[in-house]
Every structure is written in structure tokens, then in C-alpha cells.
Amino acid sequence: TQGTTQYAGTGWSMTGHSPAAGSGASVVMTHTNDTMLTWFWLTNYWLETTAGDNGTVAGEDGWIASGVTTQITAIADPYYHFTNWTGSAESSDNPLDLLVDEPKAVTANFAENLATNATPEWWLASYGWTNEFDAAATNDADGDGLATWEEWIALTAPTNKQDVFRLEPLPASVSADGNVVSWNSRTDRVYAVFWLTNLSESASVLADDLLYPQNSLTDTLHSAEESIFYRIKVSLP
Known about the structure:
There is one protein chain. The chain is mostly beta strands and 237 residues long. It is 8% helix and 45% strand. The protein has helices at residues 121-125, 133-138, 148-154, and strands spanning 5-15, 21-22, 36-51, 55-58, 62-65, 68-76, 80-87, 96-100, 104-112, 114-115, 119-120, 173-175, 178-182, 190-196, 204-211, 216-219, 229-235.
């Protein structure tokens, strides 16, 4: 064995003497004259298969004879699907018929299944929906005014009307530096705070690209005596 290449003895042949041929890694003979003994070798290559997150690969890593085409299959976890192979094979075929003509390593990649408005099926399943995902994503199961897909963006619980994306507390508190805007921040979400003096006008950005665990912002542009409205936006990273 030399790294990811292996040479396996498959047998031998002999001229000028008997026996004339045989298999295995040894030969027993009585040496009586000049003889030519030839060993035969098979080249094997190491095949390494890896599964990305949310899936597995059927078949084990191992030595494969050179020139052999082997088949490997990617198996996605529930609520995910196979996308493609990367590494020694760039393909979306599944199963994949792979010609082993050199050492090879392939990785199976998977992606989440998405319902309406890119709502992940696995997230819906975590709240009890295991079918009719598009309908579940567009409904408002807890009656809090937000569709389930909007609760995914906010990362609030779609089955708990008390858990809703909002400014907290209401009204905004006041500090010596200005109004303090607070919200229920969640990990892996991005927030932006806007202000406006009239609900009919366009809002101006007070701050954006705010990440968890930040959950409040002090408005130093306006005094506490001014009449200011605030809006907060949540989005996926």
C-alpha cells in the first residue's frame, strides 16, 4: 500500500519449470534448473465517500480495483433532498456510477426542502406539520396576525400567539441620550430600525445590520420631546 494506491498480488506464472501457474502470494517448488517466475499484481484505488449535513451515503469507503465502475447512492434526511456530488465527481446523478481509475473522494451535498416563501419543511415539521407544507406556511395557526412563513423569518413560534415579532416594550423607553427602541432578538437573524415623523411618509434608516444578541438601540438623532414613530425589520442573513 502506498497512500491511496494499493498493489495486491493475484498470482504467478512460471516458465521452464512446473507448476506453470498458480494463485496466491506464495509458490512451493523444487528448484532444479533455470526458471522464470513472474508475479501478477492488481492495482486498487481508495474510494472515500462523505455525506454533507442532513444526509448519508450508502456504501462504505474502501479499496476498489482499477477500472471498475462502482455505484454509490446519496440518501437525504427527511425534509431534505440531494443536490449534487462534489470532489472527484461533479454530478447531480443519484445513484452515481463512478469509474475508479485513480484514487477518488466524493461528497454528497443536501439542501432543505422549502415550502411557500422559502419556509423550510423541517422547521414546519418541528411544530407538528408533516404534510401540506405550502398551506401550513401561508396560514396563521395561532391567530397573531403573522402568517407562518413570516414567523419563520422572525423566528417566532407559529403556534404561540404570545411569541410574536414586535417592539418591546411598548411604548419605547427613554434614556438621557434619547428614545430606546427594543425588540425580541433571535439568533441568525438581521435587524434594522427605521424612524419617521408621520406614518404616511417614507421611513428613514436609523441603523441596520444589527445582529443577535443586540436587542435595543438608542435614538441619538432625536430628542425625547420629539414625536417619532419607529419601525423594525427582521430578515434572514
